[in-house]
Design brief:
The chain is α/β, with parallel strands linked by helices and 299 residues long. It has ten helices and eleven strands.
Length: 299
């Protein structure tokens, strides 16, 4: 009997009802939800009532000044959000024509943007669309593991490789290294040491940084970088954190901020006159490559 009711409820619940329910919960009002959903309040009330009847309990406490989720409604809200996200993801996979798609993620990088533009011009393929997403290393791992992207290009410190490989193994992923580069300090054009070829530890401590993201594997984990004497670098202050390489470049071109990142993989890139100082070059190696799912063919 219970199985029959479960099947009946699953068959009767509509995606529209879940969407209406989530919006109502978010804004705490049927009338405000109706405005957001471009419909009328009676339609919203009708959808919520139908969902409550299917489930067999009330989702909201109706108050004079709005609505509040009931205790059961709070549980339903959590799963409704996940259901909507999953269904929308499934819908994004559907193709109405024969156009293939290639999804790629990468750490924010002006160099990667130039490489992709060169690739597109050289290998322009008919019936192929591209999706490019900039993200942190941690998010790229989740996206590739979750089949949102086919490949994820990342920069990772060689000293972090053990932990990096552990996370990849847990997610059934692997890393293909393409090249090694170095940790580089980029100084903004208004910094007094902009033209310098080296920097002292005393001056290093005074720097204020603009960095991309802050997670375990990103290069702004400068406290994991050691100098030739084996001492940790001083902890520096990140005054700007951004996921935009455009913001990064603009700040380096117009302020005295600095950035700790990687060296360029190839020389044929416009560095826009941003000065780079290698930080203890021999001791700090950066691996560049791509993450992919194990035992899988790629485009």
């Amino acid at each position: 009997m219970k199985d029959n009711r479960f099947k009946k409820v699953c068959d009767m619940i509509e995606l529209k009802q879940l969407k209406y329910f989530v919006v109502c919960a978010d804004v705490g009002s049927f009338s405000k939800a109706a405005e957001i959903l471009y419909t009328t309040q009676p339609n919203v009330s009708k959808a919520i009532k139908a969902l409550e009847e299917h489930l067999g309990f009330s989702l909201f406490h109706r108050k004079s000044r709005g609505i509040l989720l009931s205790s059961r409604g709070k549980h339903v809200y959590e799963y409704a959000c996940k259901a909507i996200d999953n269904i929308e993801m499934l819908a994004s996979f559907s193709q109405t024509d024969r156009i293939e798609q290639l999804q790629i993620a990468s750490n924010p990088s002006a160099w990667m943007a130039k490489v992709f533009a060169d690739f597109y011009n050289r290998f322009h393929v008919k019936q192929l669309h591209f999706e490019l997403y900039s993200a942190s290393v941690a998010e790229i791992i989740k996206r590739v593991a979750g089949y949102q992207d086919e490949l994820g290009f990342v920069y990772v410190m060689d000293s972090q490789n053990t932990a990096f490989q552990y996370i990849l193994t847990r997610n059934h992923l692997e890393f293909v290294e393409l090249k090694k580069t170095q940790v580089v300090l980029y100084l903004g054009q208004k910094h007094p040491l902009y033209q310098a070829s080296e920097i002292s530890e005393a001056e290093l401590k005074k720097l204020k940084l603009v960095q991309c993201y802050e997670d375990e594997f990103d290069l702004n984990n400068y406290w994991k970088i050691t100098n030739p004497q084996g001492k940790d670098m001083p902890s520096l202050e990140s005054v700007v954190v951004t996921n935009s390489d455009c913001v990064m470049m603009q700040l380096l071109q117009t302020t005295d901020l600095a950035n700790i990142g990687s060296g360029y993989i190839t020389a044929d890139v416009d560095e826009k006159e941003i000065n780079g100082i290698p930080l203890y070059e021999k001791e700090n190696v950066v691996m560049f490559g791509y993450i992919r799912r194990r035992q899988e063919e790629h485009s």
